[in-house]
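COMPLEX REQUEST
Ligand: adenosine monophosphate
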Amino acid sequence: METSVTLERALELASQSPLPRETEEVGLDDAHGRLLAADLASKVDDPRFDNSAMDGWAVREADCAEPGATLRIVGTSQAGSSDIPAVGAGEACSIMTGAPLPEGADAIVMVEDSSTEGDSVTISGPARPGYIRRRGENLREGEPALTAGTVLTPAAVSLAATMGHSAIEVVRRPRVAVIGVGDELTQPGQPLGDGAIYESNTYGIASLVTRMGGEPVRHEAIHDSIDLLRETLDEAAEGCDAILTSGGVSMGKWDIVRSIMEEEGEVSFWRVQMRPGGPPLFGTWRGKPIFGLPGNPVSSHVVFTVLVAPWMASCMGADAETGPRLANRVRVVMQEPLRGAESKLCMRRISISQEGDSLVGTTSTHQGSGNIHSMVAHNGLSLLPPGTDSQEGDTIDALWLV
Ligand code: AMP
Ligand code: MG
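STATUS: Structure written out below.
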């Protein structure tokens, strides 16, 4: 077991006990938000054929060189038609947006630039080849337009359909157990006894698991009982790919997650040089990776953001740019001094906003690691290296939460 490791070392050690990466096929209706498991190539050219970008007339550009040209109407091409008349010299074919370009035509006149009388049309505006959408100009058949490790956004789902895929191979959502530990914890909605507080962490952590593309299995919080904890961990290890606990990992007498892990589990590291969130623990329980997250609500949230989320993303094969993530790394000009922490990476809650050409950071609410409101009132975390403070006007690294 290593103790007091850097965040980088913690990530390295955690990567030695990965989540299994399995794949499954989902239909397009269920594809949104899923992580693409393999490159997806187009089954067709897009567009499939030359077609019009405008409602108007398919013509020969040369026929419309002079304003006021009158052309003979030979028929209509509408979206979905297959029997389309060719356009010869002095002729025009009525055409709708997306309809195939008639043979012989090489330009489109917008309907607004025309007037019809009987079977002829008079052209009063430009005939533009640019109004033709050319076969394959967006995508060529065989082109891998979506790459493995990408989260399927609404546009990506639409693109997959455009490319002719009805089902998509995605990474199976890892099942992640979420367990809260503490005698004081009471379900929201229930009456609070003396010394009791509402249990909040498992709800937040389960939501974070979902955001990262996992399937949370949230357990009701349990009391500070070793036997109960062992039973719950066993059940979680049985049915899940990984386990997250919250609470009970510090130095206190009742920090039972730490003690049971030391005695009956495998601990890879305990404590990370970061604030908030110093006491996390990582190891395996019955062979399943387990993170013991701190009980303080901000700490558990921050540790998930900088440690669990990147671990999950990397286990799932996510792309750094287009995969799931909770934050983007940015450079921020601080508008007020920020105190760092001795020998710890200091992640204070900051509000990041755009001002002119740069991102600026401010702080407002107080920074206690028990104050989950500070995570809602701010949208970023400072990344102050150990033993450094920042002065007003300093540019610092930060995470902009997404
Ligand atoms: P612990 O790590 O168990 O010492 O808990 C540290 C602090 O976090 C204490 O103030 C706990 O009451 C609080 N806490 C622990 N677990 C939760 C939870 N699931 N929801 C809300 N607060 C918690
Ligand atoms: Mg506790």
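REMARKS: The pocket of adenosine monophosphate (ligand 1) is lined by residues 180, 182, 184-185, 197, 199-202, 221, 246-250, 252, 294-297, 370 (CB under 6 Å). The chain has seven helices and 29 strands.
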